[in-house]
Amino acid sequence: MTNLQMNKSTMAYTLCAIALLALPFGYDNRTILFLITQVFIFGIFAMSYDLLLGFTGIVSFGHAMFFGIGAYSVSIILDRNEPTMFYLVIGAIVAMAIAGLVSFIAGILTLRLKSHFYAMLTLALAGLFLVAAEKWRSLTKGNDGFVLQIPELFRDRTNLYLTCLISLIVLFFLVRRFTQSPLGRILMAIRENEQRVESIGFDIMHYKVIASVVSGVVASFAGVLYILSLRFVDTSVFATEVTLDALLMTIIGGVGTLIGPIIGAGIIEFAHHWLSELSDVHWIFERWIILFGIIYILAVIFFPRGIVGSLMHMWGKKRYKKHNQTKNEQKKVAS
Amino acid sequence: MMTTLLKLEGIETYIDQFHILHDVGFEVPKGEVTVLLGRNGAGKTTTLRTIMGLNPATQGSVTFNGKDITKLPPYKVAKEGIGYVPEDQGIFGDLTVGENMRVAMQKEDDSTHERMEWVLNLFPDLKTFWNKPGGQLSGGQKQMLAIARAYMNESELLLIDEPSKGLAPIVVEKVMESIQEMKEKTTIVLVEQNFLMASRIGDRFYILDDGQTVHQGQMNELEKDESLKKKYLGIA
What is the C-alpha separation between B20 and B211, in angstroms, rounded? Predict the structure, then answer.
């Protein structure tokens, strides 16, 4: 990407961010603001998934475990202590530390495996966390879950909205910086050809584990924000559906684009909301998950690059055509 | 006096259940171009992959600069100073030419910048298409990028697998000229089907047949030996 293109995209992102920052001050529909807050949270989660799938080529079916670790860590700490900012920060730090440690250990144990075995093993690991959360009732209150108090500041929906948005912006630029760093380039090279990267002199395990840890930590942070928005936690945060949602958001938005998964999160969250509301119109909308399945199949068949990926591809082709035209014209003039 | 940079002794390699290399052995002198010749399926590519640790040998030894590297994983073999240009070039298609080059740089110091400058002078096309994704390059440009990238990794030895494969004759000529120039800077093991090209740049040859080293010698001797060429290379 040239500097000019980069500046253009950074400017577009900045304008979007300013518009979203101003939104709650001019628009006070609580439902929609809550929904957009959820988009920010799942945007962070999907972005963390994209770091694995889109940038490193690792398919994980157990990403929900990091989301769940984030959710439960902060919930348990706030539940057992005063619901103050201090304990919230402690909870978030503990959540990210546990997620980092778990992703490190899981990475070391599983990332040597071929992609499909790795995917199945992550599914099993996430299942293990789900069962542990169900059975360790003294700590998690099992399937019933529990309601928790959160710091005063975040009881105000606008504050929570702004916190989630700022977190998304900061993490987006940090993760983008990470993917554009030399380390990020190695991850992309791993995605394309692991053996080739190894024969250039890089220990791919080392880099895959780094990607896994960064992704796990970011996902756990999304789990922390999720709990602040719901003020309730139960074992569903470890469910496979959470990972599948992230996968869907990433694929629909555009794998390996970072901004794509955020857009995908917006589409999925709003589709959840509107399709559920339409259940009075027709019974099929009660089964909106079927519609999601259809959307997923259509997206994979017709837009394998996702929305952002397809747009970038079309734009690239247009630029290439224009470049060739200019070149041909220059040749004509010269001759 | 000839210094041996790479030495293979009694190499046996399996790919899955298939026994590909049987007692392969040869020496690569420092500063020379050693050419591995042989028909399709003779085991030339597997030999290079065995040296790199991509298809590790089950028996025998690979010694580089006096150090046993037989059991090292590919990334450690590369760190020892062996660059590998595979048959399919192995370009990272989504990365730009510049990113492909930078990925190969283990460190950024004066010597690396000197290497970069030298290699870009050798392959000026890479400079022209610096910001173009590797996947959009032509076959010849990809080959140049692959060779340049392998060289960037401070390689003392370059293993180049069939650089002329699938390229137009004029491009082959250009690639071979570049390899000839690289000869001044590094030791090369070249796998090449195009005998004419190989004989132009090679100093010494080894012929592989059915996974075994069956003949060796100086390249100029082979050029004169019509029966040998006919027997193992199918050149009348």
Answer: 6
The reply to whether residue A199 touches residue B77, judged by beta carbons under 8 angstroms, is yes
Whether A255 is in a domain gets the answer: yes
Domain presence at residue A200:
yes
Cβ atoms within 10 A of the Cβ of B159, count?
28
Which residue reads 């542990």 in tokens?
A132
The C-alpha atoms of residue B164 and residue B173 are separated, in whole angstroms, by 9
Is B92's CB within 8 Å of A2's CB? no
Q: How many folded domains does chain A comprise?
A: 1
Asked if B104's CB is within 8 angstroms of A200's CB, the reply is: yes
Question: Of B122, B103, B34, B126, which Cα lies nearest the Cα of A196?
Answer: B103
Tell me if ipTM is over 0.95: no
Q: Which of A41, A69, A48 is nearest to A213 (CA)?
A: A48
User: What is the spatial distance between Cα A163 and Cα A153, in angstroms, rounded to a whole number?
Assistant: 10
> Which residues of B lie closer than 8 Å to A, measured between beta carbons?
52, 54, 73-75, 77-79, 84, 86, 90, 92-95, 99, 102-104, 106, 131, 149-150, 153
Residue A319 lies in a domain: no
Q: How far apart are CA A53 and CA A264, in angstroms?
A: 14
CATH number at residue A147: 1.10.3470
What class does CATH assign to B4-233? alpha beta
- State the average pLDDT for chain B: 87
Beta-ladder partners of B85: B160
pLDDT tens-digit profile of A268-299?
A: 888 888 887 777 777 777 777 777 788 778 87
Cα dihedral A311, A316, A317, A323 in deg (nearest 10) = 150
pTM score of the predicted model: 0.85
Query: Which residues on chain B are in Cβ contact (under 8 Å) with A193?
Result: 90, 92
**Which domain, by its residues, includes A290?**
3-304
Tokens of residue A286, six digits: 């009660």
Q: Which of B45, B49, B55, B75 is most worth mutating to test chain A (most A CB atoms within 10 A of its CB)? A: B75
B54/A192 Cβ within 8 A = no
State residue B232's pLDDT score. 67
Domain layout of chain B by residue ranges: 4-233
Q: Which of A2, A185, A200 lies closest to B95 in CB terms?
A: A185
A2:B131 CB<8 A? yes
| pLDDT tens digit sequence for B168-184 | 777 888 888 888 888 88
Quick one: pLDDT band at residue B1, thresholds 50, 70, 90?
low
**Across the interface, which of B54, B92, B131 has its CB nearest the CB of A199?**
B54
Distance from C-alpha of B167 to C-alpha of B172, rounded to nearest angstrom: 6
| Beta carbons within 8 Å of A34's beta carbon, 6+ residues apart | A157, A229
Q: What's the pLDDT at A299?
A: 79
The tokens for A81 are 């202590």
Size of interface A-B (CB pairs under 8 A): 61
| Bridge partners, residue B28, by sequence | B6
- Cβ-Cβ contacts under 8 Å for B188 (sequence gap 6 or more): B32, B33, B34, B157, B158, B159, B160, B179, B182
In a domain, A293, yes or no: yes
Do A203 and B153 lie within an 8 Å CB cutoff?
no
